[in-house]
Design brief:
alpha/beta; TIM Barrel; eight-stranded parallel beta sheet; globular; binds orotidine-5'-monophosphate; lyase; OMPdeCOase_dom
């Protein structure tokens, strides 16, 4: 069950840091092969160096799909090398008509065996239902994304004078979360929006990417949402150093992203 697993890992590691496993062949350390086998070695070293510092890992499926069937195998091997007490959140941003969503849910939860997934809300409830009804898994639904283009749609004003992303937060909190397995994705680049969402729906965990490479500041995220923010960092940790000491360098950067001990207040 994702939520319990995540809270247990957050408490035992005193961390709300999620490391994004987004392996880019062009950025692998020089001594590793630039192929799927290199990715597995890279990820395993990163996981070994950081698994006592995180509350979750988030592989983004794009980096594995880009390598075809070898990439899919690399993703499975990566997931298998994550210690079983640390939850795995697959970043796939799924959402489609019911029958297709069912196949996506089965691929993520049964074939890959991950604990949680990211979803896009724009096709509505039935496109998410096959994920939401898996009460043992968690669904993180895009709300206010970290990228500049997020404004194009998410910030459109509704007739009630509020932006669309607040309606999405409301739908998730009040209609789609009957299994208590939902969270929202909110970019670290928009701390004021994080604060608004957290004040309205303090019970929802927030997956917050955008710290580091995209310019988001961890202190602002923590001030906005405290320990309900699962802070994802990918490139800043993974590519801290392109040499043979890349894993130790990743560990050092990850340590710098840890929440001060006293700030963690999970039940
Ligand atoms: O769903 C996500 O995780 C996500 C949502 C969002 O709004 N912004 C965002 O950057 N992400 C993902 O979070 C990760 C951020 O990577 P870094 O910018 O390298 O830390 C990538 O895997 C993105 O695809």
């Amino acid at each position: 069950m994702f939520m319990q697993k995540f809270r247990a890992a957050a408490i035992s590691n005193r961390s709300t840091l999620c490391i994004g496993l987004d392996p880019d062949l062009a950025r692998l350390p020089e001594h590793l092969p630039r192929d799927a086998a290199g990715i597995v070695q890279f990820n395993q070293a990163i996981i070994d160096a950081t698994s006592d510092l995180v509350c979750a890992y988030k592989p983004n499926i794009a980096f594995y799909e880009a390598l075809g069937s070898a990439g899919w195998q690399a993703l499975k091997q990566t997931i298998a090398s994550i210690p079983s007490h640390i939850p795995v959140l697959l970043d796939a941003k799924r959402g489609d008509i019911g029958s297709t969503a069912q196949a996506y849910a089965s691929a993520a939860f049964d074939e890959l065996g991950v604990d949680a997934i990211t979803l896009s809300p724009y096709m509505g409830y039935d496109s998410l239902q096959p994920f939401l009804e898996r009460a043992d898994k968690a669904c993180f639904i895009l709300c206010r994304t970290s990228n500049p283009g997020g404004d194009d749609v998410q910030n459109l004003m509704l007739a009630n004078g509020e932006p669309l992303f607040l309606k999405i937060a409301e739908l998730v909190a009040e209609r789609w979360n009957s299994n208590h397995n939902c969270g929202l994705v909110v970019g670290a680049t928009y701390p004021a929006e994080i604060a608004t969402i957290h004040q309205r729906y303090p019970q929802l965990p927030l997956l917050v990417p955008g710290v580091g490479s995209q310019g988001g500041a961890i202190e602002e995220v923590q001030a906005a949402a405290g320990d309900q923010a699962i802070i994802n960092v990918s490139r800043s940790v993974l590519y801290a150093n392109g040499g043979s000491s890349f894993a130790e360098a990743a560990r050092k950067v990850a340590q710098a992203f840890l929440v001060p001990k006293q700030a963690l207040n999970h039940p």
